[in-house]
Each structure stands twice: as structure tokens, then as C-alpha cells.
Amino acid sequence: MIRPFLLAAALALLSAMPVEAHDARAGALTVDHPFARATAARNGAAYMTIANGGGAPDRLLRARTEAAAKVELHTIVRQGDVMQMREVPSIDIPARGKAELKPGGFHVMLLGLAKPLVEGQSFPLVLEFEKAGAVQVTVNVERAGAAQPHGQGHGGHHHPPAKTP
Ligand SMILES: [Cu+2]
User: Fold this and answer.
1) Who has the most CB within 10 Å: 6, 76, 141, 152?
2) In 3-state terms, what secondary structure has residue 97?
3) Burial of 158 (0-12, 13-18, 19+ CB in 10 A)
């Protein structure tokens, strides 16, 4: 039999752990929860939050993966009523700040997927930063967002941040 106080301690420990612990670190940077949406299309996108705990800004310069023929850094800009993807040379990660790559904004564009992105699978993605260097992260493929075709720029992020007790 488990003593109540031990059980409480165990539960507290469990709730403190993120559901999907696949963060990666590179120097002062922490890459939190890289994910992509399941798609049967030729192209997809990867999202993540990159936090910078250091006092100097850094920059995501490029990314690569075997999962796609070509990888670009994109943002989404509004032109009148139309949201359009635009390639960017880099993505800034401010000192003691963060860059959020998310649907409707910055993303790692995966062009010419080798195979469809299937929910529940994952693939490696190498990120190259100006100062922190290269780091490999594991991108989880998640359920395709309902009414969230890539590039349309509407929110609908189905993955709320981990709750802090
Ligand atoms: Cu794109």
C-alpha cells in the first residue's frame, strides 16, 4: 500500500513533467516541442519555440532533414486579404527572448516530402544557428489541424503549452 504522502509526491512529480519531453539544447538556446502537422501533400511545415537564455541574440540560419528534398525558412505575410508565405534569410532569436515558429507565422518549410507525414511518427531535423551551431531535434508529427491548411495563416494551434502548477 502506498502512503498518501508518497502518492501525493509522486503525482506532483508527474504533473511537473512535460507530456512530450523532446526539447533540445544548443548553447544558450532551448528548442521546445518541434512538431509538424500530418499531411499527405508534397509540402509541410515544422514549428517549435526557440528560447534564448543568453545575453546575446542568435539567429536560425537554415535547417535540413532527410524527410524533405528542400528546406526553407518561411514567414507568412498579409497582402490585402491574402496570406502568403515568404522565404526569409534567417529567423532572429532575441537575447533572453524567444522565437516562436507556429502556424500563421514563422515556420520551417519542408518542400518535396519524401513521404507523407503520418500522425504519431517523427523525423530528425537539423537546425543551424549563427552562434549556437547545429543541433538535431526530433519533430513529432501531430494530427492535421482541422480547417488549418498550411499557408492560410489562421491560428488553431491545438497544442497548449504545458501547464505549470
Ligand atoms: Cu512555408
Assistant:
1) 141
2) coil
3) middle
How many whole angstroms from 59 Cα to the centroid of ligand 1?
18
For ligand 1, the distance from its centroid to the CA atom of residue 13, given in whole angstroms, is 38
Domain that holds residue 73: 32-142
Let me know if residue 91 belongs to a domain: yes
CA–centroid distance, 45 to ligand 1, in Å, is 6
111 CA from centroid of ligand 1 (Å): 8
Amino acid identity for residue 55 in this structure = G
How many whole angstroms separate alpha carbon 17 and alpha carbon 117?
A: 27
pLDDT, one tens digit for every residue, the chain (165 residues): 555 555 555 544 444 444 445 788 889 999 999 999 999 999 999 999 999 999 999 999 999 999 999 999 999 999 899 999 999 999 999 999 999 999 999 999 999 999 999 999 999 999 999 999 999 999 999 998 744 444 444 444 444 444 444
**Inside any domain, residue 122:** yes
DSSP three-state, residue 71: strand
CA of 88 to the centre of ligand 1 (A): 10
User: How much is the pTM?
Assistant: 0.75
Output the CA 8–ligand 1 centroid distance in Å: 45
